[in-house]
Amino acid sequence: MGTDLFDSWLEALNAHDGDKLAALLTEDGTYEVVATDSRFSKRTAPLAVSSIHDMSSDFSVSLVSIVEDGDRYGVEWEVVGTNDGPIPYLGLPASGRTFMIRAGAFGHAEGGKIKRHREYWDVSGLLAQLGVPPSSVVVYGLGSFSEEASEDT
Fold first, then answer.
1. Residues 6+ apart with CB under 8 A from 65
2. How many whole angstroms separate alpha carbon 72 and alpha carbon 90?
3. CATH architecture under which domain 4-152 falls
4. Which residues, 6+ apart, have CB-to-CB distance to 42 below 8 Å?
5. What are phi and psi of 37, to 5 degrees?
């Protein structure tokens, strides 16, 4: 597999080019973003890149680490950008704030292309950076956990 796949993946994202990302998938490849419950195929992969670009016209991705074992991989990266566009799937307007997200994925390549890619990143961390307060359920849950933890000490 080598780093050619990841170099091309990084290039596609940083060029904000969904067609380049689609070209990296096998014909039956899937690209899943667990944080947004989204799944993309070769045909719909350009939507993944356009949705990121729509919420941040200046986003850029830098690779942190790659681990490969045969045709399986784990990859970690950071995304930085400015939220200068709306986030429709969350019903949020542009905040104008900058953000940095750490993310990772596990996947399976076939013939030098992505067969299965499952990506994870911290939605609540992104929302906090954009100034969206946590829901009362989250605040209550954290408060309850903190109170219980303090009773044990």
1. 75, 76
2. 32
3. Roll (3.10)
4. 22, 25, 26, 27, 28, 29
5. 55, 45
The owner of tokens 């408060």 is: 143
Q: What is the domain partition of the chain in residue ranges?
A: 4-152
Query: Three-class SS of residue 129?
Result: helix
User: Helix count (H) and strand count (E) of the chain?
Assistant: 5, 6
Q: How far is CA 1 from CA 16, 38, 114, in A?
A: 23, 25, 10
Q: What is the DSSP letter of 133?
A: P
Half-sphere exposure of 121 (CA within 13 A, CB side): 20
Integer-rounded Cα Rg, in Å, for the chain is 17
pTM: 0.81
Burial grade of 149 (CB within 10 A; 0-12, 13-18, 19 or more) = exposed
pLDDT beyond 70 at 125: yes
| Residue in 87, 78, 72, 79 with CA at minimum distance from that of residue 118 | 72
Type of residue numbered 49: V
Q: Taking residues 133-138, what's their average pLDDT?
A: 69
